Amino acid sequence: MPTKPSQPTPADISPDKAVHLIRKLMQRFKGVTFEMLEQVLLPLDAPITKLDRTLKKFGMHYGATFEIAQGTEHPTITRGRSGKIVPKAFLEGTGDWKELLKARIHDAKPGQANGELHYTGQKKELETRIVGVNVGDVFEIDRYGITAKLESALTEAALVEHALKRGYKVTRLPEDIAQHLGEYHDCDFIFEKNGVKKKVESKSLWGTDTSKCRLIHSVGGRYETSSCKFAAQDFFAVNLWLRTGCITDIAFARSVLRDAKHPHGLPAASKKQPKKPKDAPKRPKGTPAPPKELLPDYVTQNPDCSVDNVVWFGSIDDVWNLP
């Protein structure tokens, strides 16, 4: 297995480059201050001061409880505010970013707030994860909602760099296109090498369960479901940052229905079953459920996603010539 390249660190960036970046941002957004940029680009970090791992029922799911020593002195700390729990070691600069659990504030006052720790709604998974959370780990709050957009943009930039380093020509297709200039593109990128062009769609892990990815598309028009069509792209490129904490970790897969000719493919989506009327007879106990109707033109929405060198691969080179 090839050695994984070392990742850049803040120490690799010269002070001149950092100052240049800040000055360009302040020039682009006239009137912005350094403090505004810091509050937008960086989350508010609130270390856990009290933790009770006892699971309780909150609505339809289970959760543990926690407390922080920060509160309504911050405009964004209020009832209902959600965020992620990340390791204390990350804040101290001795470990990588990693989502341990999700968090949600219930009550807040000056200098104090408390709430619940939860994950995916699955009690068993929560029981496993809560063991790894400790006092001192950090409640990370995205104050102005930039993280999702910034992550999306950085994952695409990382994908472009990945391809360019391996000798591909890359075209980033527009998100939308004027009608007189051509048809709307269903994929994000065109990669080209040795005269061969292929379509690549950039996707992310599923925030609710980072063992899976989200292969979704807007419903409507030519799409009868919110799953991606196999034919819309040749490859999926899923960024693994939500799981690994490294923006350059990417998993690639062929966008093709898995069958005897395509063992590296992905499973098909299934048709959503209509809701049964309340007075419909129940299926007799022990009777198997009828098989789901598959949609062979569409990929399943939330497949498992990890680099196994069977379906998911760690480089575009590894999937480029797969059938």
User: What share of the residues does DSSP label as strand, in percent?
Assistant: 25-35%
Assign the CATH architecture of the largest domain: 3-Layer(aba) Sandwich
Mean pLDDT: 91
Helix coverage percent: 10-25%
Please characterize this protein's 3D structure.
The protein is of the alpha+beta class and 323 residues long. It has 2 domains: 100 residues, Thrombin, subunit H, CATH 2.40.10; 162 residues, 3-Layer(aba) Sandwich (Trna Endonuclease, Chain: A, domain 1), CATH 3.40.1350. Helix content is 19%, strand content 28%. The protein has 7 helices and 14 strands. A 6-stranded antiparallel barrel has the order 1-2-5-4-3-6. A hairpin with a 2-residue loop joins β4 and β5. The radius of gyration is 23 Å and the shape is globular. The two termini are 23 Å apart. The mean pLDDT is 91.
Descriptors for this entry?
19% helix, six-stranded mixed beta sheet, globular, Trna Endonuclease, Chain: A, domain 1, Thrombin, subunit H, 2 domains, six-stranded antiparallel β-barrel, 7 helices, 323 residues, 14 strands, alpha+beta
Give the topology, please.
Blueprint: H1 15-28, H2 34-41, E1 44-58, E2 61-68, E3 82-86, H3 88-92, E4 101-109, E5 112-118, H4 123-130, E6 138-141, H5 147-165, E7 169-172, E8 189-193, E9 196-206, E10 209-213, E11 235-239, H6 241-244, E12 250-254, E13 268-270, E14 294-299, H7 316-319
Parallel strand pairs: 9-11
Antiparallel strand pairs: 1-2, 1-6, 2-5, 3-4, 3-6, 4-5, 7-8, 8-9, 9-10, 11-12, 13-14
In short:
The chain is an alpha+beta fold and 323 residues long.
